[in-house]
Amino acid sequence: MAAQKINYQNKVRGDLFTSANANEVKEAVNHNADEITTLQNTVSGVSQSLTRLSQSVTGLREETKIVKVQQTETTVAIDPNKMNIWGSVAALNITLTPGTDGIANEYMLQFTAASDNFTLTLSDTVRWAVEPEFQAGYTYYVSIQDGLGLCAGWEAAAS
To answer: How far apart are CA 26 and CA 44, in angstroms?
Structure first.
């Protein structure tokens, strides 16, 4: 709807301002007031939608943060999409809990091998890009997704 305009000629001193002129002014003002109210309601609705969208994005950011889980047990079931961290350990026996369908379920581990005889026991379904060999004192990061495993190790930082 377009804004309504007043159609009569500009008045000058001495011109008669009739009831028809007054009614036209009233009609135009009321019509335009209705237009403004409609636009205000539309803007308010858009504003509320943007607020809900912003809250959803904020919630999504919170949901997608990777939580660090400090582990103390060496035989444990771990959940996907959480960073599982151990200190120095002689062995780990890990069970991977089922993930959520339709999303990438990554199992993440970080630990330091206490000896050259360190063993990591996982499901037989994990296939490694390179079969890991563990060395005492190295800190390792392991990532498993869709049954595919990656492992990287770092020497202890020099003091």
So the answer is: 27
Q: Greatest CA separation found in the chain? A: 109
| Structure confidence by residue, pLDDT tens digits, 62-116 | 667 889 999 999 999 999 999 999 999 999 999 999 999 998 999 999 999 999 9
3-class state of residue 18 by DSSP:
coil
The predicted model scores a pTM of 0.62
State the Rg of the chain over Cα: 35
> What residues form DSSP beta bridges with 107?
144
Question: Could you give the CA distance from residue 84 to residue 89 in angstroms, rounded to a whole number?
Answer: 13
d(CA 128, CA 151): 8
Tokens of 52: 């809900």
